[in-house]
Amino acid sequence: MTDADADTVTQEFTDRCGSPPAGVWSAPGRVNLIGEHTDYNDGFVMPFALAQVVTVAAARRSDDRWRVTSLNQDAANGGETQEFGRDDLEPGMSGWQAYVAGIVWALTEAGHQVPGADLVLTSDVPVGAGLSSSAALECATLTALADLGDLDIDPLERAKLARRCENEFVGAPTGLMDQAASTLCQVGQALFFDCRTFETEQVHLALDEAGLELLVLDTQTPHALVDSEYADRRRSCEEAARLLGVPALRDVTDVDAALASLPDPEMQRRVRHVVTENARVLAAAAVLREDRITDLAPLLDASHASMRDDFEITVPTVDLAVATAKEAGALGARMTGGGFGGCIIALVGAGTADAVAARVGAAFEAAGYGPPSHFVGLPSAGARRLR
Ligand code: ADP
Ligand code: MG
Known about the structure:
Elements: H1 2-17, E1 23-34, E2 44-60, E3 65-70, E4 80-85, H2 98-109, E5 117-123, H3 133-148, H4 155-170, H5 177-184, E6 189-194, E7 200-204, E8 212-218, H6 226-244, H7 255-260, H8 265-289, H9 296-310, H10 316-327, E9 332-336, E10 343-349, H11 353-367, E11 373-376, E12 384-385
Parallel strand pairs: 3-5
Antiparallel strand pairs: 1-2, 1-12, 2-5, 2-6, 3-4, 6-7, 8-10, 8-11, 9-10
């Protein structure tokens, strides 16, 4: 919906600021094809950018202030406007505007001259569904401000700055995947990303050529205990790496020997997930390089089983969605994102995503769960200027 959204923010900007914007920019949310909880273990991930984006219209101001309106906030009033100046740029700022202010802060910390600006944005990235609406917001803001200020920053550096905003200003301890996906992804490609070296490779994800599509289904499960469970898994992995004498679980080469040397069965399961998941991302990259997309399916299935049984980060709604998608003909399916709710992805025949989603909806109703929502995930472009 990029064109319509670009028209909307252009019009809203013009109405609110009295003159048209200097430009319109967008940055996408993402879905992770495979590689879950591998990022903080220095491992591999493989996201692709969605067609769902944050779209922002912006222009410079003559003073050192930023005024930002999100048309998604308090829509009844036509959007919520927040304003801040340089003195307000304190890490830990509350509210959604922290994602915007944090970008100004991160750019400034890195020595860039960020111009004051008015911004009006809208988004069709589902919020809090694990599709990274936060990184989309950060990267759209950064792309706009970098252009307005003529700042010369390459896409990987942009991702790092946006991550710094999220980690240090907003205070969410995430890896680099979301921001890297939002700035680096390309149409029709997945991004094979090494979370240790930050090496990237675009791998062709020609779903349509293979007669396939990727269903993204949001279970709409309210996330509970996510932060504490995430911290627990992270701690367990770091402790295991310490016991194994390696810098990170990415460095475990002989999984059987590693498991045999760990005392605790739970820790063994955690390690097995991370080590086998890394191997699955490498296998998925090989599969895509050779355009053998259907061979992704067993990797997706194995990834889900590993998250369910070894890493123990799935929940009943997610497991039901995956099992039902498979029964309805999906070649492979897995939870995507950090866990404890959120979305599943399913590799399905072209034109069948709606039918598969309908089957999951029926199963949810029978189980007494609320209705899920869904869309077809299209590998799309990273952050860019639209007009
Ligand atoms: P996710 O990134 O998985 O969607 P997060 O909790 O990381 O979930 O980020 C969601 C937060 O990002 C929201 O609570 C809000 O603060 C901010 N956000 C995302 N999209 C928008 C938007 N369109 N307008 C205002 N704030 C937004
Ligand atoms: Mg996020």
